[in-house]
Structures are given as C-alpha cells and as structure tokens.
Please model this.
Amino acid sequence: MVASSHPVRLTATLCLAEVLGMAGFATFAALLPGFLDLWALSKTDGGWLNGVFFGGYVTAVPVLVTLTDRVAPKRIYLVSMVLTVLAGLGFAFWADGFWSALVLRFIAGIGLAGTYMPGMKILGDRLAGRAQSRGVAFYASHFSIGWSLSFLIAGFLAAALDWRWAFGLCALGPLLATLLVAWGVPADDPAGFAKPQTRLLDFRPVLTCKPAMGYVLAYTVHNFELFAARSWIVVFLVFAQGLNPDGGPGWSATLIATVFTLIGMPASVLGNEAAVRGGRIKVITAVMLASTAIAATLGFLAAIPFPLLVVLCLLYGATVTGDSASITAGVVAVAPTGHRGATMAVHACLGFIGSSLGPLIFGVVLDASGGGLSPTSWGLAFLAMGAVAAIGPVGLAVLGRQRS
Model:
C-alpha cells in the first residue's frame, strides 16, 4: 500500500485501522455475565471493570492528544496501538480476578487514548470543509462498527474456545492496525497548520471557547449514556430472556448486542448528514431528547414480549448514537486556531470521564435498587442514564449557539 493523503483513501485507511484496533474493545463487556460468575463479582465490581478502561483513557488522553499539536500524530498512534496489543495479550495470559483485570483494563484504556483521537486528528489536519466533516463523521461512526464486531467476535471465540483465547486472538486486530497505519498513512505532518503558542497542557484557549465547550458538555453526557448502555446491554438482555421463557431462549444476547452497536454506524452518519443540512445544534438536540425518552422507559419494559423488547433496544441503539458524529464534527469545526489537538484532548478527556462513570453508576444503581433482579431495578438504572443525557441539549442551548 502506498501512503496517501487523498481524502477517500486516507479516511478508508484510518477507518479500517480503527475497526481492527478495536477488535478486543468490547470483549470484556460481551463476556461480563460469565466473569460475574467466574470471579464472584458484584454488579458494582462489574461496573468498575467496565469503567476503569475509560479511566485509563481519561488519564492519558490530555497528554497524548495535546501532543498531536506538537508531534506527528502518527507516531503517537503507532506506539499506543502496540500498547493495545500488549494489554490484550496480558489479559489473555495473566488476568485471574478483579485486581489483575482492573490493571490490564486501565492499560488498554491508555492504548485507546493514543489511537482514537490522534487518528481523528490526522484526518482533521489533512481535510477541510465538507470533506473534513464527512471524514470525521465516518471515522467517528466506525467506532460503532469496531465495537459491534468486537461483541460478535468475542461471543463466537468464547463459545468455540474460551475467554482467554478470545482476548488473545482479538489482540491480532490492533497488530494489523499498527501495520496498516505504518504503511498507509504519510509520516510527515501537513504543511502550514498553525502551531500552538501556549505550553503543553495549557487548555485556557479551549476552556474559554464557549461553542467548543457546548459540544464538549454534550459529548460528555452522550458518552455517559452510550457507554453505560453498551456495557450492560448483554446482561440486561440475559435478564429479560429469563423473564420470557417462551419468547427468547433461542436468541443470542451477544448477537443482539452486536446489532445494537452496529446500528450506531449508519445512525451516526445519517445524523451528521441531517446536521449538515438542517442545522447541527437543532438535530443533535432532537436526537438526544429522543434517546432520553427511550432510556426513561426501556428497563421498566423488560418483561414485555422479547421480540418487542429487541425492537425497542435497536431503536435505542440508533438514537443513542445518532448524535455522536455530529457532536464530534462540531467540536472539530469550532476549535480555536492552533489548538485543535488541545480541543480534542479536552473533548476526549471530559467525554470519557462520562464514559467511565456511566457503566459504574449504572452498576451502582442496579445494586442499590435490588441487584438488577427486577424490571424496576433495571428501569431505574436506564432512567438515571437518560436523566444525565438530558443535560446535553441544555448545554448546547446555553453555550453552543454562538457558532454551529
């Protein structure tokens, strides 16, 4: 493969690398019901192990992504993808309980911090106008493809072999991504982009940019809801199947979760196209409110006929991701000149604080409301997610309307 900055080829290369790099991303979430039994974990323990991944992300992303304003993003990307490989192999060979899993999940989160947003920064630096908006949107939407395929692969490998083989074989994905980006992305930074005049980790130009911070707030609560839902969807579906002995025994919860996640890709792209044509803030607000409405009722409906519940879950999978690409494209578009990397670092850091807290709070609500043993318990957990997501439209209304 010849390295190229042609918009389509560059976007395709980075999207494929993103999907490959995420091969082990959802392995733990997909196999969480088994780990709860195998390691005698509480729901709160499960929430910690889901959330600590994003804790590792949040710890590393301010430094790694801000460095992309000063260092070629490709270098940061490649080193971090290698770390992702090592974290996956480490889980396969050494994880044996809560604490070892906690450490390895944290390391894997650091790997994501140095790949997801730096990959987007490569696109943002080399593309402009609608090509930039669409390139960023496609890249952001492929996050859903990577996650959904990770769900599917994990379920298949764990059933055919065991969970250690699932983690070990999924580590091959980021290894292939490393090779793809090493050969397929130009090594040099694009000429002429503005260099920052501030010191590393000086985020004042970003924090004082109200339009950017409006999108950052929306992204934070969006991630809170999204990652909680995706982390717990398999456990929820297994619980619902238990309430419907005649309606869902033959349905695979991991396969449904795969579709739940995969549907986010077209929803995210179409949401961004609607935002380009109909106004970014208007469309984001409508999608977030629709997602909030479904979250407020989903858990309470666990006992309805299982096929109907699956349809409702898939509708939720579309609304909970329909605003993702347009939020990220928005923050890239309004970033202060010379501080795109720093803006994306703040965006990613605060956003993934939401990602780390969402799965944890979901588990805490389940434990506090009866351990997830009733539809009421699950209803309250999903309701809490929707209530947090409802903050997003308020933030956009207050901060974001100066520029869109």
User: Anything to note?
Assistant: The CA atoms of residues 67 and 349 lie 14 Å apart.
